[in-house]
């Protein structure tokens, strides 16, 4: 073919193919089991029938985890970490007295497998909440908030999104429509459990937050769907890395047998009991596709039926977020959601004078864009930041819709020593989370304390990367967030 007839993109992909072949890419056979084995019991939209319900999804999940258990038994490895049969990182071994391995018969009682969907039923019914986790995570991500809502009288359904909680290879072929289908199943189940009680809410994180918005847009078009009254979105995935735009082409290349290893953006040791460390190209593409779908569907719904009935939204976002675009989140609140009904809380970086001289200018530029544009917002904008530059104490700085004045309310909270900002992954976890907390609860143990690692020793000894603990894993302002969510859901007083 004449070179002039080949597009630049085609030449780029052809060059990439040649380079990968010549550099000798590995085949899937050389990959670890958790990178190559596909669990065929996983749910997809192909499994849906007219009468498929939430109970059927849970039954299929039972079969999925039974298959996972067998796969791990059939593929024993000494370097498997969370996938080793006798490891405390393995969720099949999570026990109530978890300081000993579950080798002796009847020694310990198995507790919840937090990698799976779970349902929490209150003693008194106030309403219901569907909770959705993020990409590469598991339902453990929303566990702490879910237990709190149960105590407050809410029936909670925390759904495991297909491809998650099992093997990272589950993200090789999953589609975001599979996640949307499970969201719909969970909402229908919640409505069935609540009966005439219409106090239905979403409280969701990252990709789960985007799915909550997607569902709510569908509910604007189809009034037969259960209608959420309010949404709470933690680090909502409204904008992702530009690399995701290219990931579909890379994923297609990766289906060529010799290039199958190129279907992964990263392959890492799997020592995290509730999140994948490895990440597929397809996962990035699905994230990109979902965010583009939201933009298009928002426009379509607005033209079709309008957005005046779209429920109020409370959002929480870290100013600096390496996963999600904070500017995109602010754009949704300013230009997409129905105005004058919503609130966005942004956790600022630590602006103590000790940190500012070594803080990159990008954080200042983003701060200026969001907070110092001089124009009143059409939503309530709240900043959680230093009381002043010589203090680690923080205040709530509130700017109500149509106002340009910030009102300060000092909080009895502060940035912990050494913490220079929050992060995307920190928001859902309290400071005492047993796995990701800075001050973990000693009463629970799931094989590792990732939130307060302070290891010292020789390089190349541990499976963890040197910068593993630089990214904050838990939210020092979680108590503020929890209280603000309670107020948003109009919980009058705790149920004793």
N to C succession of SSEs = HHHEEHEHEHEHEEHEHEHEEEH
Strand order of the largest sheet: 1-3-2-4-5-8-9-10-11-12
List low-pLDDT spans.
Answer: 1-6, 19-27, 97-110
Please state roughly what percent of the residues sit in beta strands, choosing from under 5%, 5-15%, 15-25%, 25-35%, 35-45% or over 45%. Answer: 5-15%
End-to-end separation in angstroms reads: 76 Å
Roughly what percent helix? Answer: 25-40%
Radius of gyration: 23 Å
What is this entry, summarized?
This protein is α/β, with parallel strands linked by helices. Helix content is 31%, strand content 13%.
Question: How would you describe this protein?
Answer:
The protein is an alpha/beta fold and 496 residues long. The chain has helices at residues 8-22, 33-36, 54-74, 143-151, 176-194, 207-221, 243-254, 281-304, 326-336, 361-371, 478-488; strands at residues 118-120, 127-132, 154-159, 200-205, 230-234, 264-266, 279-280, 313-318, 343-347, 380-386, 393-399, 407-414. The strands form two sheets. It has a ten-stranded mixed beta sheet, with helices on both faces. Strands 6-7 form a two-stranded antiparallel sheet.
SSE blueprint:
Layout: H1 8-22, H2 33-36, H3 54-74, E1 118-120, E2 127-132, H4 143-151, E3 154-159, H5 176-194, E4 200-205, H6 207-221, E5 230-234, H7 243-254, E6 264-266, E7 279-280, H8 281-304, E8 313-318, H9 326-336, E9 343-347, H10 361-371, E10 380-386, E11 393-399, E12 407-414, H11 478-488
Parallel strand pairs: 2-3, 2-4, 4-5, 5-8, 8-9, 9-10
Antiparallel strand pairs: 1-3, 6-7, 10-11, 11-12
